[in-house]
Design a protein that fits this description.
9-stranded antiparallel β-sheet; Multihaem_cyt_sf
Length: 730
């Protein structure tokens, strides 16, 4: 069977052919699925692109696609900016785009970023298509096709093959990856099959012990009289099919171990939170987040709905076409009625409750929150804009307010959460009270609760102490992970008490978050608290298993530095930057590390590289500005500190340091202006408020002083500095 060659198959895995020998109906269904087509060896049966010698020019690059002796090749620009010919080893997907995997060296596969648009010509397809803008055709761009971000072994393979083992050699920076099936096959979901086959051969098979992974149940939903929504007769049980099986690949997450199909999700992965730019501030998908984070926000997930209530597990297609599948649980007599659609004829559940976004230029993906558009947040009206393209925000808001509510419908919790999440993202201290009230209602999905808490604790750490402490006992690992992240903003005495408790958590994703937080706070705690030794060793092993990622090497470098293993730290910093020469966190951290040993010249070079590759990043501008201050080039420092302070990524510290620099260079009114603007942007920040008041006093600007003292008193009425300055005014 084409596409099922085994490469060093694991002894526990049988391969798809063995499964299909007994399960023909399921196998035939799978052969029509996207999972089957997720990856295939490149041959005439699967290659859809025009390899007749065609050329495609875009930006700085001209690529030629040709076939020779039954093999497929692409001649294109290499990392050195020279034309080079590469063999096409595999095709990657097939609709609406088919990518091609090129072997740049033995064992290393890269996803070429010019894809074949497989749509019919009438829909704009049947063409070569550049997946990103022309800037990526420059070999120096971080997303150039030969770089880390387009590497198949580290970034794609685990979810596009079965039984994948990376086998990366950090000494040689080479891969010797293996897998059982070249695509997403039976054992990707059902787990290793050899035990199952052996039990049948030995006639020891039983329904209580199938030898396969327990997938989690699919609840049956029933309608009851008077209720337009079908409900299950009992609560969902663990394990969760949506989380542990489908979610393993259909989620934006980081791996905590070599891919394994048998352990629960949170032992294998860390799920990304609802942060921008991955999500809009109302929780709607923005970047490619692969469904699970959206679905876990939904009322459906809460009710026990899982993927196979809507999708056939073997074809991947929905059980009924379009919105018909919605009608299996939501009575069309109510939800397709004019009262629900507000008279929109032909309204489609999917278009309003699962808005689409286009990825990779032509690929439409649906949001899986199944949310209700809300007048409380502008992003929530995105589905409406599909038809009402020219409508103003005001018109849409009024239209949504006037929309008839179904009797008994739940309050607009999502809209309230979205509005508060947006305000908290802007560090608006006035949103904390309302957000606290919403949290106290205890009605939010875990991801939404975590998103609020992690923003609130930055603004009001003392107030959030009790809430964050309580989160350490929550049943949901997502909440306990959030507590570990939030700890970074708590008072130091509380930080470590909380993190020490979570360091013993039974779930690997929580413990990994604790280790990461401790490394970013004060690595010395690992040596001061002997009970953290096991945590550090576990985290080191986790990072070693991911050494083909720059971030893992950065973590290992920090640990080696903590342990005074200086040559080891340098080795990991250098490997991180060999894998991705433009990895900004590694460049900034390596610069600090080198400076701590007096190597100012090399430290400065790391910052210069960071500025070259990440000039649009606030952290880079800030670090470079501080370097100029150390160089006593004060005037040269100002533009960089100003850019950092004005960036959308800025934090209060950037504005504070910028103001201090202006003051010291005698731009004193400018300094007060920066602090005043910072107060507007980050209301309630103590350093900004008190410095603004002190500077106004020193400048003898009575008007500015009154304004600054009043603002300080609004937030810190018992502060000694406030009382002192107030006394001077009186």
């Amino acid at each position: 069977m084409s596409g099922h060659s085994s490469v060093n198959a694991s002894e526990n895995y049988a391969g798809a052919e063995a499964c299909i020998a007994c399960h023909k109906a399921q196998g035939d269904a799978w052969l029509s699925s996207d999972h089957y087509q997720s990856m295939q060896p490149a041959d005439e049966n699967v290659v859809l692109g025009d390899f007749s010698g065609t050329k495609y020019t875009f930006g700085k690059r001209t690529s030629r696609f040709f076939e020779q002796d039954g093999e497929y090749f692409i001649e294109t620009l290499n990392q050195q900016g020279k034309q080079q010919t590469y063999p096409v080893r595999y095709v990657f997907g097939y609709r609406p785009l088919q990518q091609y995997l090129l072997e740049t060296e033995p064992g290393r596969l890269q996803a070429f970023d010019v894809a074949w648009d497989t749509r019919p010509g009438s829909e704009g397809g049947q063409r070569w298509y550049q997946l990103q803008d022309e800037s990526v055709t420059d070999p120096e761009h971080p997303f150039f096709w030969t770089g880390y971000y387009q590497n198949w072994n580290s970034r794609c393979a685990a979810c596009h093959t079965t039984d994948f083992e990376e086998q990366f050699n950090s000494e040689t920076n080479q891969y010797h990856s293996t897998w059982t099936d070249v695509n997403v096959a039976c054992e990707s979901c059902h787990g290793p099959g050899q035990e199952h086959i052996q039990s049948i051969t030995d006639k020891t098979y039983s329904s209580d012990n199938t030898g396969l992974k327990e997938l989690g149940e699919k609840l049956v939903f029933h309608f009851s009289d008077g209720d337009p929504i079908a409900r299950p007769q009992r609560s969902p049980q663990s394990p969760s099919l949506a989380l542990d099986t489908c979610g393993a690949c259909h989620s934006r997450r980081s791996e905590l171990q070599e891919p394994s199909g048998t352990e629960p999700y949170h032992q294998r992965f860390q799920l990304e939170g609802l942060d921008e730019p991955l999500y809009f501030s109302d929780g709607q998908i923005r970047e490619e987040v692969f469904v699970l984070g959206s679905f876990l926000q939904s009322k459906m997930a809460e009710a026990g709905v899982t993927c196979t209530n809507c999708h056939d597990p073997h074809t991947g297609k929905t059980l009924l076409p379009g919105a018909q599948v919605c009608g299996t649980c939501h009575a069309p007599t109510v939800f397709a009625a004019p009262e629900h659609t507000n008279g929109h004829e032909g309204a489609d559940c999917l278009d309003c409750h699962m808005p689409e976004r286009i990825y990779m230029g032509v690929d439409a993906r649906r949001d899986h929150r199944f949310h209700r558009p809300s007048p409380k947040h502008p992003n929530s009206s995105a589905p409406c804009k599909t038809c009402h393209e020219d409508a103003s925000e005001g018109w849409l808001t009024d239209a949504l307010k006037a929309w008839p509510k179904r009797q008994g419908a739940s309050p607009d919790t999502l809209g309230e959460w979205a509005a508060l999440n947006q305000r908290l993202s802007a560090l608006d201290v006035t949103a904390v009270n309302a957000a606290s009230n919403l949290l106290n209602e205890d009605k939010l999905p875990s991801l939404e609760e975590a998103a609020l808490v992690e923003k609130m604790v930055v603004i009001a750490p003392q107030r959030m102490l009790e809430k964050v402490s309580g989160m350490t006992d929550d049943d949901d690992p997502i909440i306990r992970q959030s507590a570990a992240r939030a700890a970074a903003s708590l008072p130091e005495a509380s930080q470590y008490q909380l993190l020490l408790k979570l360091s013993q958590d039974p779930i690997r994703s929580v413990r990994a978050e604790v280790a990461s937080t401790l490394l970013s706070l004060s690595p010395q705690w690992f040596s001061r608290a002997p009970q953290l030794t096991a945590l550090l060793e576990e985290y080191q092993q986790l990072l070693r298993d991911s050494q083909d990622h720059p971030g893992a090497n950065l973590g290992l470098a920090k640990i080696a530095s903590l342990q005074q293993q200086i040559p080891v730290a340098i080795k990991h910093y250098e490997l991180a930057l060999q894998i991705d020469p433009q990895h900004i966190p590694s460049l900034l951290s390596y610069s600090d590390f080198l400076r701590s040993f007096g190597n100012e010249d090399k430290a400065r070079r790391q910052l210069e590289l960071a500025l070259r590759y990440g000039s649009d990043m606030a952290a880079v501008q800030f670090s470079y500005g501080l370097q100029k201050i150390r160089d006593k080039a004060y005037q040269q420092a100002l533009p960089h500190l100003t850019k950092a302070a004005n960036s959308t990524e800025a934090i209060p510290r950037y504005a504070f340091v910028s103001a201090v620099a202006l003051w010291q260079l005698n731009y004193r009114k400018d300094a007060i202006t920066v602090l005043a603007e910072a107060h507007t942007r980050w209301p309630g920040n103590y350093d900004i408020l008190v410095t603004r008041a002190k500077y106004a006093y020193q400048l003898r600007d009575v008007t500015a002083l009154k304004t600054a003292v009043k603002a300080l008193g609004e937030y810190y009425p018992n502060d000694a500095t406030y009382k002192q300055l107030l006394g001077l005014l009186n």
